[in-house]
Amino acid sequence: MQAILLVGGQGTRLRPLTLTTPKPMLPVAGVPFVTHQLARLAAAGFDHVVLATSYRAEVFAAHFGAGQNLGLRLSYVTEAEPLGTGGAIRNAAAALHPGDELVVVQNGDVLSGHDLAAQVARHRATGAVATLHLVTVEDPRAYGCVPTDEAGRVLAFHEKMPEPVSDQINAGCYVLDRAVIDAIPAGAVVSVERETFPSLLAAGAVVTGVVDDSYWLDVGTPAAYVQASVDIVTGVVESPAYTGVPVDPSAVVDPSASVVGGTALGAGVVVGAGAVVAASVVQRGVRIGAGAVVTRSAIGAGAVVGDGRVVTDAAIADSATV
Ligand code: GDD
Ligand code: MG
């Protein structure tokens, strides 16, 4: 089985963290976020994954190489100008080895415990051209709203609807017939959510939704990004990529400091006397001063939190001093 991971977005809502590091490469529980998705694909039996890159494209191959450490074969395809989600899928498909009738496509910013094998099996059983993982959320407005009938057939796809008609949303993982991908115009900017899915539905094609309310989180905001790391460290969700060690062995934590609540510390982090770091992600090279209190925050690489400073629900830029 082959998959395409969409990792080319700008990660605007995660600025300033994403000014230097693309969202899928931000550390989560000690490894770049997308490692969790790749490890999960490997565990589900996938053998080849194409990363559809655009923003900061070069850092992905520099880190993951050919994928040998993950037990996967990785390919990289880069859009010179971002082509949107649909254009990125079409562009990345050129790197798939031919012959597979179906392809799994995932947004590169979703942490999910859903049953991918069941989703693929459902796709095969229903004869749909596309099978979408759906979840129910309290506030669907920031997502693709996807109502279905009793049999699970998708009735409509409304991206970011101000007054949602359903609490079911697109969870960002699709099983697609290869023919659906090949029908997307090449080299054009296309949104799979705003164009491809609505036009399939308008043409009467069978699109199926699979509701699976396992753990699911889009890490697109600073709060969600920090939550994903905390949830893995505290065991709320399991990841085959998590080493079980949230504090890098090269971090130096004063014996009187407390690092608690699922915090992850990167390489070379120094935490001073009496400091408290709770439910946070602290990237490599950060210095947290004596008596500082950092809570539910993401601290960018090389940043300095001064003695006694209180940082709560914050996203601090790389190399910043607060
Ligand atoms: N290669 C490439 N090129 N990737 C892109 C591009 C592009 O032009 N634009 C976005 N992406 C990638 C992003 O990196 C991300 O992994 C994924 O596509 C989705 O983009 P987001 O910007 O995170 O979209 P969203 O969160 O607002 O909405 C999407 O995800 C929701 C679920 O988390 C949509 O698919 C919604 O329908 C869905 O509900
Ligand atoms: Mg997103």
Describe the fold and architecture.
- The chain has 322 residues and is α/β, with parallel strands linked by helices.
- It folds into 2 domains: 2-233, Spore Coat Polysaccharide Biosynthesis Protein SpsA, Chain A; 252-316, UDP N-Acetylglucosamine Acyltransferase, domain 1 (3 Solenoid), CATH 2.160.10.10.
- Helices cover 22% and strands 27% of the residues.
- It contains 8 helices and 25 strands.
- The strands form 7 sheets. A 7-stranded mixed β-sheet has the order 5-4-1-6-11-8-12, with helices on both faces. The chain has a 4-stranded parallel β-sheet with strand order 14-17-20-23, with no helix packed on it. The chain has a 4-stranded parallel β-sheet with strand order 15-18-21-24, with no helix packed on it.
- The protein is elongated, with a radius of gyration of 20 Å.
- The mean pLDDT is 97.
- The site of guanosine-5'-diphosphate-alpha-D-mannose has 27 residues, from strand 4, helix 4 and strand 11.
Bound small molecules, deduplicated: guanosine-5'-diphosphate-alpha-D-mannose, magnesium ion
Silhouette? elongated
| Oligomerization category of the chains in this entry | single chain
In the CATH scheme, what's the topology name of the largest domain?
Spore Coat Polysaccharide Biosynthesis Protein SpsA, Chain A
Distance between the termini: 47 Å
The total strand number stands at 25
Determine the structural class based on helices, strands and strand pairing.
alpha/beta
CATH class of the largest domain: Alpha Beta
Radius of gyration: 20 Å
In DSSP terms, counting alpha (H) and pi (I) runs of 4 or more, how many helices?
8
Physical arrangement of strands within the biggest beta sheet: 5-4-1-6-11-8-12
In helices, the fraction of residues equals 10-25%
Any low-confidence stretches, pLDDT <50, length ≥5?
none
Mean pLDDT: 97
Sheet-strand content, in percent, reads 25-35%
- Summed up, the domain count is 2
